Amino acid sequence: MKTIDGGVTAAKGFKASSCQAEIKYKDRTDMAFVYSELPCVCAGTFTSNVVKAACVMWDKKIVESGGPMQAVVINSGIANACTGKEGFDACEATARAAEGALGIPYTSVAVASTGVIGMQLPVDKLVAGVEKMSTTLDGSLLAGTEASKAIMTTDTVNKEIAVSFEIAGKTVTLGGMSKGSGMIHPNMCTMLAFLTTDIAIDKTLLQEAVSDVVKDTFNMITVDGDTSTNDTLLCMANGLAENEKITEKNEDYITFKNALMFVCEYLAKKMAADGEGASKLFEAKVIGAKDKQDARVLSRAIVGSNLSKAAIYGCDANFGRFLCAMGYSGADFDQNDVELYFESAAGRLKVFDKGTPIVFDEDKALEIMKEDTVTVFVNMNEGEAMATAWGCDLTYDYVKINADYRS
Questions:
Q1: How much is the pTM?
Q2: Residues 287, 229: one domain?
């Protein structure tokens, strides 16, 4: 497997476009269109929040129907959540606009929205945007990059990646884009993420791979402890790589799943690092846990604690905050087994050893914690399981951004 240039248009047969529809923003592109020349098998994971956006319910219906997906239309600025029947009607109007413009069934058109909850979408602008973008769909890498920019809200950078790998002599490509900066504490996958691949694969196996991979990628990031109403990950596979269709969990399936893991982890970490107001990527690695669930719970508790996040921002090697978060995580362990270290590009420093604090070099600790990526490394010494979670520091700017999000 190798990383290549591009995102959602890197795989064969995929095109993208974007436009400024002025859904809410007046100074940027705010709609994106991703289209496959052929109908795709699809997979998806969605928010566990009981309050689900209209677009989430629309996309779940497509994924669970077993039918094909051929396009996805995304808008930023307004989330289309808590919008009643009018919100669902906006989804259908968007899909039918794509049907009219491209001659594809509206039931194969997914929709996604991100932005302010509780506002109605301007349907006339949505439809006009779809009609405009349908005439500019393009398979270039630039078109994919511009699409990744159009779905941003408070993100400071766009997020995209593509990889290629070999399956039975055929070159397969997998690309993706995502957005997410705040309201990030997924219990399914993430905010918005879209994956495109030309692999030929059975729909059931595609869904199994996606559902499994998100557990250790998108499900392991947190910015602020808030699970969005709009969390959506969609994966479309059109089969144009012409590999022998994957219908069982063989070596080809494992190869694809490894590529999927790489792409999803990359996008997840990009989102964690770009958390609202963040200045650092905050990583927690837990090894030696009793089981995988404990490892996941412990690592997510560390990066999810506001006190831990504040300590990372302040470069304060206050290891007690991280141990405290582990203690209320719900995982059962003996603190007298735990070892805790701080790590970064500047080095590694042990600060807690099996129930006993260690006298450590505060200057070295400060040097380690000043880096752009800081890791809290924990050895539970109770088993073989491990997990990694990603988050960011908590800065003054987080409050500033969210104090006037609607304006």
A1: 0.87
A2: no
